[in-house]
Amino acid sequence: MERLKGKTAVITGGAGGIGLAAVRLFRASGAEVIIADIDEPAGAKAAAETGARFVKCDVSKSEDVRKVIDVCGGKLDILYNNAGVYWNGRDGRITDIDEAVWEKVIAINLRSVFLFCKYAIPLLMKQGGSVINTASSAGMIGIPDCDAYTATKGAIVQLTKSMAAEYGRYNVRVNCIAPAAIMTPMMRQSNPENSTFDEERFLKLRTPLRRYGTPEEIAKVAMFLASDESSYLNGAIIVADGGITINGDLSKID
Q1: CA–CA dist 235, 13 (Å, integer)
Q2: For residue range 223-252, what is the model confidence (pLDDT) as tens digits?
Q3: Which residues are catalytic, by number?
C-alpha cells in the first residue's frame, strides 16, 4: 500500500540507522525521498539502493540546509528531523564537558532542527504537511553523564510543542518520536564492549519488553506520523522505548 504516494520527504541523517530504515520504508510507500547526511559514501550507497536522492549536508550549517531545501523544487510534504549524535566519552556531566563538545552537540542535534524547520516550513505551509522531530528518552527523564545530549533532546520536545501550536493553523502538523534502546551503530558505539555497561542487566531490569528495539520499528512510527493516518495528531510526543521511561529509577534494583 503506497501510503505516501505523491509526497516528497526530506530525511536528515538518512544514510544509516533509523534514518536509513525510514528512507527504505518511505520509498516503498511511494514517497520521493531526499537524504540529507554528511556521510557521502553511505549516503550515495543508500540512494543507489533505494532510489532516493542524496544531498551531502552538514545539518548544522545554514548554507547546506538551504541547499537541501532548494533540491525540493518548491514542493515538500514531510520533514523528518532524524539526524543526531551522542558522543560517548566526550559528553558527560556539565562540569566536565569541554565547551567545544557542548557547542558541537547543540549544533548537530538542536540547531539542525531549527535550520530545517526555518527553511522547510514555508514550503509545507503551501499545502500542509508533517514535521517529525527526533527526541529521546533523555528528553523525557533524567539520564546522567550525557548532559549535552539530554539538553538537546529536552529542547526538541518543547520546540515540537511550540511549533505545533504555531503552525497547526496552516495545516502543518509537528510531532516528535522519543526512542530509546534502539539497536543502531550509534547505540552500539555508546556502549562499547570494553565499558562497564551491563547489557544483560539493562535488558532485564530497565526494559519491560526485555529486548532492544529496531530501526525498522521506529521507522514505522515515523511512517504513521508522515501519513494522513495521523491527521489529527499535532504536538504529540510518541515515546517508543519498550517501556523504559515508565520504569522509574531502577539503579538500586539487584
Answers
A1: 22
A2: 999 999 999 999 999 999 999 888 755 454
A3: 149
How many independent structural domains does the chain possess? 1
Q: How far apart are CA 171 and CA 165, in angstroms?
A: 11
pLDDT of residue 72: 97
The verdict on residue 154 lying in a domain is: yes
User: Letter for the amino acid at 245?
Assistant: T
The pTM assigned to this predicted structure is 0.92
Q: Is 192 a domain residue?
A: no
Check which CATH number belongs to the domain holding 161 and give it.
3.40.50.720
Q: How far is 153 from 184, CA to CA, in rounded Å?
A: 18
**What residues have CB less than 8 Å from 233, skipping those under 6 apart?**
173, 175, 225
Domain that holds residue 139: 8-183+215-240
